[in-house]
Amino acid sequence: MRNCASVSLLILTNVLPAGLRGGGEIVTQSFVDALARSGEEVKVLGYRRPGPTPAAGRHEQCVGKRPIETSAAGYRAFGWMARAVATRQPYSSAKYHSRAYVRAAREALAGRPRAVILDHAQTHFAIGRAPGSLPPLVFVAHNAESDMYAQTASTATSRAARC
Fold first, then answer.
1. What is the number of other CB atoms lying within 10 angstroms of the CB of residue 28?
2. Bridge-partner residues for 53, per DSSP?
3. Which among 58, 62, 85, 143 would be 20 to 30 A from 25, CA to CA?
4. What predicted TM-score, i.e. pTM, was given to this entire model?
5. Where are the beta strands (DSSP E) in the chain?
6. What parts of the chain have a pLDDT lower than 50?
7. 100 vs 30, 44, 93, 105, CA distance in Å?
8. What is the pLDDT of residue 43?
9. Are 59 and 44 in contact (CB under 8 A)?
10. Which of 114, 153, 134, 127 is nearest to 45 (CA)?
11. What are phi and psi of 95, to 5 degrees?
C-alpha cells in the first residue's frame, strides 16, 4: 500500500493551473485532475501571476509570483533577456528560471516521486542540476507551434521579422 503522504508524480509547470485563466492552464488542470482521479498523489510546482489570485489548487505549490506573459513583465523582461544571452538558453526558458523554483524542485525530488512530468519545456532547468539519479521524465507538449512559426515567417515583411 502506498503512503498517502508521498508524492507519486511531480509536475513542473510555468504557471499554476487552478486559476484556469488560459488554454494552457485548462489543459494542465484537466491533466492533474485525471491523474488524481486515477489515484495518483500529484504535486504541481509553478508560479502565480502577480496581483489577486485564486486559492491554490489542492495539489499546487507556489514557487513565487511572476508575470507569465512578457507584456506584463515591464523592465523585468530585459533581465530575462540578459540571462538568456549570458546562459545561451532560450528567452522562454530564462524567464522562468529562479533559485526558488530550483530549490522547490530539489525538495520535491528528495521525496522520490515515481516520475517527473515537464508540463512545459521551459521548466527543464529545475531538474538540470538535480543531485542523484532522476526518476523517469515525461514531457507534455501542449502545442505543436512549428506550423505557426512557419506561417509567421512566410508572411513576414522583413528579414528581421522572419528570424
1. 26
2. none
3. 85
4. 0.81
5. 9-15, 42-48, 60-65, 115-118, 137-139
6. 1-5
7. 26, 14, 15, 9
8. 96
9. yes
10. 127
11. -70, -20
